[in-house]
Amino acid sequence: MVSWIISRLVILVFGTLYPAYSSYKAVKSKDVKEYVKWMMYWIIYALFTTVEAFTDTFVCWLPFYYELKIAFVVWLLSPYTKGSSVLYRKFVHPTLSSKEKDIDEYICQAKDKSYDTLVHFGRKGLNVAATAAVMAATKGQGVLSDRLRSFSMHDLSTLQSDPDPPHSGSTQPSSAAQHRTRSMMRSKSESHKGTCN
User: Which of 33, 59, 81 is the last residue of a domain?
Assistant: First the structure.
């Protein structure tokens, strides 16, 4: 565990931060030779990081594995060994040059497919969201209308079962009937509030 932490720190500082600062200096000074040197380094370092993701999972149990990784990063950076330049010129550049057209075609196809896939899933997502919204609105409307209907149907049936108040020449119901209707509506409303909370 300790060797893993040390290798992570060394690779972070010497493999990433120092080259990043040196690349900044190369950009600032506009020195083409330095540009090329650091671009070769970053290409090799990207490949190293990709391979490292697999090797850390499968061969990290090898003795001196982390120490070898540190030595490799130092070898890549060293101005005496020029490791990144050697690897780039002998292996990476010839391989990429011979496969460049195939790689470009693959990247172009992947971009087209990813765009088509994104549009397809975007449309599906919008359809699902719209359907869910409509269903929620429909269910909500149905529940609301059922509750309103239950209030009105209950109140109407209660009013119809009440004896007719004596007519005193006006078409208005008596104050006793109005009071009963209000109290029934109030109790019905409170019972529904209790079930909703």
Answer: 81
Give the torsion sign (CA, 101, 105, 110, 115).
Answer: positive
* Integer Cα distance of 99 and 114 in angstroms: 22
Q: Which two tokens stand for residue 144?
A: 């609301």
Instruction: Determine the 3-state secondary structure of 27 from DSSP.
Output: helix
How distant, in Å, are the alpha carbons of 34, 118, 148, 150 from that of 153?
Answer: 87, 51, 9, 5
Sign of CA pseudo-dihedral 69, 74, 80, 82 = positive
- What is the rounded distance in angstroms from the CA atom of residue 153 to the CA atom of residue 147? 10
Q: Give the helix/strand (H/E) hosting 56.
A: helix 32-58
pLDDT tens per residue, range 25-61: 988 998 889 889 999 999 999 999 998 888 887 877 7
By residue range, what is the domain housing residue 45? Answer: 2-81
Span 98-121, pLDDT tens digits: 988 988 888 888 887 877 787 777
